[in-house]
Amino acid sequence: MKFTHMLSKTLREDPPEAETNSHKLMLKAGLIHQVSSGVYAYLPLAWRSLKKLESIIRDEMDQAGAQELLMPSLQPEELWRETGRKEAFGDNLFSLEDRRGRPMVLAPTHEEVVTNIVRSNVQSYRDLPLILYQIQTKFRDEPRPRAGLVRVREFAMKDAYSFNSDEESLDRSYQAMAQAYKNIYSSCSLPVLMAEADSGAIGGKDSHEFICATPTGEDTIITCPSCSYTANSEKAQSRLAPIITPVAEAEVSQIDTPNIKTIPDLCRHLNIVPSQTLKAVFYMADEELIFATIRGDLEINEVKLKNILHCSDLRIANDNEVQAAGLVAGSASPVGITAIRKIGDHSINNGSNFVAGGNQEGIHLANINYPRDFTVDSEDDISLAEPGHICPNCDSTLESTRGVEVGHIFKLGTFFSETLGALYLDQNGDHTPIIMGCYGIGVGRLLAATIELNHDEKGILFPKNIAPYLVHLIGLNLSDDDVAKSAEDLYHQLWESGIETLYDNRTDQTPGVKFNDSDLIGLPLRIVVSPRNLKNGQLEVKTRESNESELIKSTDIVSWISSHVG
User: Fold this and answer.
1) According to the model, what pLDDT value does residue 245 have?
2) What pairs with residue 255 in β-bridges?
């Protein structure tokens, strides 16, 4: 490809809308074009990289024994109602009607359709195990698209689905997919963490995310430096250091706390620390008011709470909803509350003589102890694991890092097969639900994450396996006929040798502009044809990550590329 024929153009200034380095560089280098919020066109440079990513993904899927198919993005809504996921996805699900008024959805994922396909084609245990995959467009009506291709409303995803006869077989499929994912990331020069994760609206019992660590990531990952424990903060567990409690539980007493509504204000007023308090938070779980209580120095993990409650929607209750139940927001206590369901975190056992709300304005209670003074309907782990907590598997202190998810795998179990009737005849002649797994990689997000971790102050540092082209060829002083002919001949020689080359043949740009564009686009190798070096039969070559260039004989250039970069 010649620069003068390219559709996209590079930008000199940083786009003001760019939130992350990858977003900024993909816009500046002319890889993507924003059509609307969360919707992007992939321009030719990005499209070439995406096709290479898809090829890497296909190779790994095929080696893992998966079969490729293609399923429709437009799906009947009744399939989603049948599984209950119409409600689970909520407003994130794009919904529409066809001309006959039949409700349809634009698929964010394909569990319903693939299960329907397998239900019609798998009859016996002899047909299992089976892994199917596709690379298909997905749609999610994200409320806040961000970071370029990281969180978008339309995107390409490789989604795979395994179908197994027993848990042992599912484990083998799951491990095969996990290894395939690791191989994919390795090919992209992308280090990842494999973290325990919540299954969310996809469902299932076990799941893992593949996380690319970056300060601009939207996920928080909890890690232990001493053992292998790694988990998304939504899923992570932790232990608290035991608090040395007083010898005896003191008698409950009232404290005047005028205009005190928050834990920090309460601690300042009484000269105590947050771990000496109990925090009350009211939630609406679907249509039910829930009272959650936790030690005051901790935060409630709403994902854990939602999973415990088995509700479709969980949100903070507003003041009117709390007052309608006869309760006082900002001064609530589990003491004496019986009319609503109460969920307590394990931390209410770790301490004594707590200060809690008095269930009336301007009053708190001192010396509250569980279970002497109050009970809960359920005591569970609903706390958010944080750095400084103790690892659940060893005695080390947990740490955290930010990251972006570049893949997610799930053990779905039998929910979809039971709900949609995907049964097989087992070896005993019984009709048995197929055990399923699913495995997803967002292709555009994977490209963005690769750029996020492979760049410098000048631009992108494309790994060679996914670079749009391997070589960026630059001709200097192309008004010189010898230079122009030599550069043109070299361009054709490289392509004929199987070396993908982008040739900057512009005659109206300075060497500085050409070099800057070369660094910005970030192809692995730059070759410069100049009048001075041409006289000596030499070419100037430089790898993108190097600060130094070297001179190579023109006649040796193809073999040099093959040994150093190809």
Assistant:
1) 62
2) 364
pLDDT(246) > 70: no
Is pLDDT at 199 greater than 80 in this prediction? no
pLDDT at 203: 59
Tally the C-alpha atoms within 13 A of residue 323's C-alpha that lie toward its C-beta: 4
Q: Are 563 and 499 in contact (CB under 8 A)?
A: no
CATH number 3.20.20.70 is the correct assignment for the domain at 471-564: no
Residue 32 pLDDT exceeds 70? yes
For 35-97, the DSSP string reads EETTEEEE-HHHHHHHHHHHHHHHHHHHHTT-EE----SEEEHHHHHHHTHHHHHGGGSEEEE
Mean residue pLDDT of the chain comes to 94
In the chain, residues under CATH classification 3.40.50.800 are: 471-564
- CA–CA distance, 177 with 441 (Å, rounded to integer): 11
Distance CA 479, CA 158 (A): 47
Angstrom distance (rounded) from CA 551 to CA 536: 10
Q: Which CATH architecture best describes the domain 253-380? A: Alpha-Beta Complex (3.90)
Could you tell me the pLDDT band of residue 172, with boundaries at 50, 70 and 90? very high
Closest CA to 565 of 538, 528, 526, 525: 525
Radius of gyration of the chain (CA): 29
> How far does CA 86 lie from the centroid of its chain?
22
Query: What mean pLDDT comes out for the span 387-408?
Result: 95
Res. 244: pLDDT tops 80: no
- Mean pLDDT in residue range 441-466: 96
CATH number 3.30.930.10 given to 19-236+400-452: yes
Strands 39-42 and 288-295: unpaired
Q: Which CB contacts under 8 angstroms, 24+ apart, belong to 277-282?
A: 277/354, 277/355, 277/356, 278/333, 278/334, 278/348, 278/354, 278/355, 278/356, 278/357, 278/368, 280/332, 280/333, 280/334, 280/356, 280/357, 281/316, 282/316, 282/317, 282/321, 282/322, 282/327, 282/329, 282/332
CATH 3.90.960.10-classified regions of the chain: 253-380
Domain with CATH 3.30.930.10 in the chain: 19-236+400-452
Instruction: Using the CB atoms, write b or e for 255-288: b if 16+ within 10 Å.
Output: bebeebeebeebbebbebeebbbbbbbbbbbeee
pLDDT digits (tens, 9 = 90+) for 250-285: 999 999 999 898 999 999 999 999 999 999 999 999
SS3 state of residue 500: coil
Q: What is the pTM of this model?
A: 0.89
